[in-house]
Amino acid sequence: MRLIGLTGGIGSGKSTVSGMLRALGAEVIDADELAREVVRPGEPALAEIARRFPGTVDAGGRLDRAALAGRIFADPGERAALNGIVHPRIQAEVQRRTAALAAAGAEAVIYDAALLMENGLHRAMDAVIVVWVPLEVQRERLMARDGLDRAAAEERLRAQMPLDEKRALATWVVDNSGSREDTRRQVEAIWGALARRGG
User: Fold this and answer.
1) pTM of the entire structure?
2) How many percent of the chain have pLDDT more than 70?
3) Is the pLDDT confidence value at 186 over 90?
4) Which of 13, 94, 169, 197 is a good FRET partner for 117, with 20 to 30 A between their CA atoms?
5) Domains and CATH numbers, the chain
């Protein structure tokens, strides 16, 4: 079985590409979904976050994502502390799900992770797909999507590796700056290439 990394940057359209791959029949493991699962009420990671980041878990015992984001995006040390709590648990679940899919006969699994390269996980992949847009497009989409001003958008962009650097490490690049149909054609071509390689 081949493990294919899918990454991009905030506002690049990675989720759109992931959805297109699913529609083509790809098995996708989504790191963002796993990140939400490991911090559900009652999970050990949430208790650790509550201790390390006071005021980020609400009275109902749920993670206050906005409060946590306000702490971590401005401070690389705080971001690293959060990653140290959450990422090992995500990776353990990725390994469990990958093994289950391999046992079920899957030939290729897409691992969808925004921080694939920042965390060095791309080195363990058989190939990597990067969803790319020009920086100015990325910034504008992020501001529109999240209602951010330019300074706040820049702060979030600085928290990730620039897309041009990710692009240089990619096996395949999906240029998502055009139409949805243009993006779909690129995704279909990549999926076809994966199929020709036998997964």
Assistant:
1) 0.87
2) 98
3) yes
4) 197
5) 2-196 (3.40.50.300)
* pLDDT value for 51: 96
pLDDT at 86 over 60: yes
Task: Decide: 49 and 85 in contact? Cβ < 8 Å.
Answer: yes
Q: Which residue has the tokens 């036998």?
A: 198
- Specify the amino acid at residue 131: V
